[in-house]
Amino acid sequence: xxxxxxxxxxxxxxxxxKLGYAITRQKGSHIRLTTEVxxxxxxxxxxxxxxxxxxxxxxxxxxxxxxxxxxxxxxxSLF
Length: 79
Prior knowledge:
By secondary structure, the protein is an alpha+beta fold. The chain has a single domain (9-78), classed as 2-Layer Sandwich (Metal Transport, Frataxin, Chain A). Helix content is 39%, strand content 23%. It has 3 helices and 3 strands; from the N terminus they run H-E-E-E-H-H. The protein has helices at 9-16, 53-67, 71-78, and strands spanning 22-27, 30-35, 41-46. It has a 3-stranded antiparallel beta sheet, with helices on one face. The radius of gyration is 12 Å and the shape is globular. It starts with 8 loop residues before the first helix and ends with a helix.
């Protein structure tokens, strides 16, 4: 499955709520998300319009590794 190309930081944060992430703070244009599902995991995402594909790919790879999911499986559940 291909990555969404016009995804903002806020939209990504909203999608990650499905995996148990919640916004814990924001400083400037960076949003900090935290989950306690499968252990504590902190994630910082830029609130840019849109998020660059390389940045988005790295964030989703980190999330998939933490939740022990395949990338495509996780993308289908989020988007």
